[in-house]
Write a structure and sequence with these properties.
Helices cover 21% and strands 47% of the residues. The chain is an alpha+beta fold and 677 residues long. The chain has a 29-stranded mixed β-sheet that branches. The longest helix has 43 residues, at 634-676.
Length: 677
């Protein structure tokens, strides 16, 4: 054998010994592990785990199932059938079908239980708040001061240093009797890596499905963030936050400081541009109805706010919808024993055109008319939430460049809202309205029995022609309108308010014109019964007037006892009646009078027919054509004409008798004169 062959043989022996040594070492470790798993029963950790939970939270942890070793998806122990209970509440707080706890093998060999990963499956949590506002998760605190690991009663040191948290297929039932909330979170998944409570950032992701049984909603949400938790200081910071509730995505930052003692928080959030109607439909089931383009709106918001246990401050809230924008800032003070919830805010906005977001008026009857009537009846008889005014104080200021609602446009709006001690006061300063000014004031007193509403509306120099496009009542008129009205209502429901409305409105127009076609038709119908023929042969369809004055008096409701007076130069219309809102119609009895001297002569009529209140009935549906509103009461017209004829006969008889008497008197005087001669 050569020297080289002997050299190779010499090298193989050390390598062989090395492999043999390594194999023996691996076998020894494997044997030690097998012996460990065979001889060490993981159920011995049951008391230690239950003790740690009790000392840290005050909750009872019960492991009803077996505790076994697990190798997938992590090395450690697996707990079966785990339950969590509150000694102060009878309802079970949470239950797990199984939890896997990752353990550090080197520490385990030394008899120490060090958990660094937690994987939970099929967790169910019950959260219940009773009528007194007490949660089943509230305890008297931990039941004992945590003992140092080396002094634990069971002799097993236990520590938690979580690097990973993975919770899948979790459900949470939440019921708040006091707030009327009944919801359930399903498929709640929580995932994180390098999880810690030592103020080191770690990624966190949460996804869930929210079922709101009270509101009949089904929501899916997702949260991703870089979390930073300092448990000792009580700080939680969520950076790079991304919250998704389709179609809305919120991004930004949320920070909570000192949550264990004097909690303070702050947030900066900004949304994507999304479809507002789709979000409302997701959150509330809102149905925009026909005539609204759901695909054509762009909504976005950005906000900054902060707060503590006493209240919150909204530094800014910027909202944009298509080409419209508004901003709000304000403060909120939470209620105390001596103070209700208190709000102070300021709203500023540019051009707000709300018509595209309002459903168009429709004359179609609902498919289920009876159901619609029943629903309307329920709304009208349901008590209004006047009691809310007792629970809040408000100071609000509104500045809006322009507002258009239902075709009505106002500019340069300044309005102040005050709610104090159960009373609401809304003052709308004069705003530009159809080339004039409009102002309003509303006062609500919830302390009165029953609650009372007082309103005042004033308008000056309004262009009636432009306003007539939205109010058909003004369609016959042109000119400048002044209006002043004060009304009061009292009641707990809409029906009661409408049945109690009382007040007086005055209207005045000068140097205008009016379309009197409907009035001509009324007098044309009267002329058919008149022996003198057509009363209106010289009347134009439109007349110029010097002054128009109107008055509308309401006495305890809309249904009856309304008094209306309209005087336009030498035309006077006066009467009474009411409105039937349920039937969508009105019914009034008027007297149409053409005045004689000294009234300005706008229209001409035979002197025999002047200063006579011709009986007219205005009885029609709201959607009827104006020319169909009124018609003469022909039976009463005949009576009036008969009375006119009778009065004329009596007048002529009186004149004839007077003439005969004068002739006899003249003859008698002549006879006496002859006798004297």
């Amino acid at each position: 054998m050569t020297d080289s062959g002997r050299g190779h043989t010499g090298m193989r022996k050390p390598i062989g010994w090395l492999f043999f040594t390594l194999a023996a070492l691996v076998a020894a470790v494997a044997l030690a592990a097998i012996v460990l798993f065979l001889l060490v029963d993981p159920n011995r950790y049951r008391p230690a785990l239950e003790r740690v939970v009790m000392e840290a939270t005050g909750f009872d942890l019960t492991i009803d199932g077996d505790i076994g070793w697990t190798f997938r998806p992590l090395f450690g122990i697996h707990l079966n059938d785990v339950r969590l209970a509150n000694p102060a509440a009878r309802q079970e707080l949470a239950s797990f079908s199984g939890i896997s706890l990752s353990l550090a093998p080197s520490r385990l060999l030394r008899g120490e239980l060090v958990m660094d990963e937690i994987i939970a499956r099929d967790l169910h949590v019950n959260w219940h708040v009773n009528a007194e506002g007490t949660s089943n998760w509230v305890t008297g605190g931990p039941q004992a001061t945590p003992a140092p690991p080396e002094q634990a009663d069971d002799g097993l040191p236990v520590s938690v240093d979580i690097r990973r948290l993975d919770i899948n297929n979790t459900s949470l039932s939440f019921r708040d009797v006091q707030q009327g909330i009944d919801a359930r979170l399903e498929n709640l998944n929580i995932s994180s890596r390098n999880t810690n409570l030592d103020n080191r950032p770690f990624p966190l992701e949460v996804t869930t499905r929210i079922l709101d049984y009270a509101g009949d909603r089904d929501l899916r949400v997702r949260l991703r963030t870089q979390a930073q938790v300092d448990f000792d200081a009580g700080d939680i910071i969520l950076n790079e936050l991304r919250f998704n509730l389709s179609p809305m995505v919120l991004e930004g930052r949320v920070a909570l400081q000192d949550f264990r003692d004097a909690a303070q928080w702050e947030s900066e959030l900004e949304s994507n541009t999304f479809n507002l109607f789709y979000l409302l439909e997701t959150l509330t089931g809102y149905d925009a109805g026909p005539g609204i383009e759901l695909d054509d709106n762009r909504f976005q918001l950005a906000t900054r706010f902060n707060g503590d246990a006493r209240g919150a401050t909204v530094s800014s809230l910027e909202i944009s919808l298509d080409d419209m924008g508004a901003s709000l800032d304000g403060d909120i003070l939470y209620p105390t024993e001596n103070r209700p919830l208190t709000l102070a805010y300021r709203l500023q906005a540019g051009e707000l055109e709300l018509d595209p977001w309002l459903p168009p008026p429709t004359q179609e009857e609902p498919d289920d008319a009876a159901g619609a009537e029943a629903a309307t009846g329920e709304e009208e008889t349901a008590p209004l939430p006047f009691a809310l005014l007792q629970d809040v104080n408000v100071r609000g200021q509104h500045n809006i460049e322009a507002l258009q609602v239902n075709g009505l446009r106002l500019t340069d709006i300044e309005a102040a809202l005050v709610v104090d001690n159960g009373e609401l006061d809304l003052q709308w300063q004069p705003a530009e309205f159809y080339s004039g000014e409009l102002a309003a004031r509303v006062r609500i007193d919830s302390n009165a029995t029953p609650p009372r509403i007082d309103t005042r509306l004033t308008a000056e120099n309004i262009n009636a022609t432009g306003l007539a496009e939205r109010f058909t009542l003004l369609s016959p008129f042109t000119g400048r309108l002044d209006l002043d009205g004060e009304h009061s209502l009292a009641g707990h429901t809409v029906d009661e308010l409408l049945d109690s409305i009382t007040g007086l409105s005055h209207a005045n127009m000068t140097e205008g014109s009016a379309d009197i076609t409907m009035i001509k038709r009324v007098f044309d119908a009267i002329s058919v019964l008149s022996p003198d023929g057509n009363m209106t042969r010289d009347w134009p369809d439109r007349v110029q007037f010097r002054e128009l004055q109107g008055q509308w008096l309401l006495n305890d409701g809309l249904a009856s006892d309304q008094e209306i007076t309209l005087t336009m130069d030498n035309l006077d219309i006066s009467g009474s009646g009411g409105i039937e809102l349920d039937e969508q119609r009105f019914d009034y009895r008027f007297g149409f009078t053409v005045l004689g001297d000294p009234a300005p002569r706008m229209i001409r009529i035979d002197p025999d027919y002047q200063d006579i209140a011709w009986p007219v009935r205005c009885d029609a549906d709201f959607d009827a054509r104006p020319l169909q509103y009124c018609s003469p009461d022909l039976q009463r017209v005949r009576e009036v004409l008969t009375q006119i004829a009778r009065d004329e006969i009596e007048r002529r008889a009186r004149d004839a008798v007077s003439d005969e008497v004068e002739e006899l008197q003249e003859r008698a005087r002549g006879l006496l004169d002859r006798l004297r001669r």
